[in-house]
Amino acid sequence: MLSLTCKTAIKAVIYLSGKQGEKASIKEIADQINASEHTIGKTLQLLVKHKIINSLKGPTGGFFIDEAQQQQPIYNIVETIEGKGIFKECGLGLSKCSECRPCPIHNEYKVARELIEKIFREKQVKDLCNTVTNGLAFLMD
Q1: Is the pLDDT of residue 131 over 90?
Q2: Residue pair 107/35 in contact by the 8 Å Cβ criterion
Q3: Is the model's pLDDT at 84 over the cut of 90?
Q4: How many CB atoms sit inside 10 A of residue 16's CB?
Q5: Terminus of the chain with fewer CB atoms < 10 Å: N or C?
Q6: Which residues contact 126 (CB under 8 A, 6 or more apart)?
């Protein structure tokens, strides 16, 4: 359902949240979440543009997240990367899938899609960060 870019964005934001306001470079983030620097760079620029995270330029610059941003739902990241329609799409990618003209997995996929959307709307960045900080979850294999 989520693209690799979106998954990378979520992991990057969670990593930044764990830094508690300290700045991190593209290289550091890429190393810590096992992603390419190119992908991280482009993704972080988009997140900054949408005020999901912050950045400062210069020799002491980097990317960081403030307290208010830590309280935003993960949904904000998903919507920024994937667009608003991500939780309305057909599970098989059909453009005309609907209640009246369903694909073979329409009903089951609709339930799963709604559950995932609910999780992303309810879970805040800090919630996911806390599980990583406490060693209960991980950002890399």
Answers
A1: yes
A2: no
A3: no
A4: 30
A5: C
A6: 17, 70, 71
pLDDT digits (tens, 9 = 90+) for 99-117: 999 999 999 999 999 999 9
**Single-letter code of the amino acid located at 102:** P
Phi, psi of 63 (to 5 degrees): -105, 145
Look-up: residue for tokens 């992603």?
35
The alpha carbon of residue 18 and the mean position of all alpha carbons in its chain are separated, in whole angstroms, by: 15
The Cα–Cα gap between 120 and 73 comes to: 6
- List of residues 6+ apart from 26 with CB closer than 8 A: 37, 40, 41, 44, 63
Task: Find the helix or strand (DSSP H, E) in which 14 lies.
Answer: helix 4-18
Nearest to 128 by CA among 73, 84, 51: 73
**pTM: predicted TM-score of the whole model, two decimal places:** 0.93
Residue whose C-alpha is closest to residue 40's, from 123, 118, 139, 141: 139
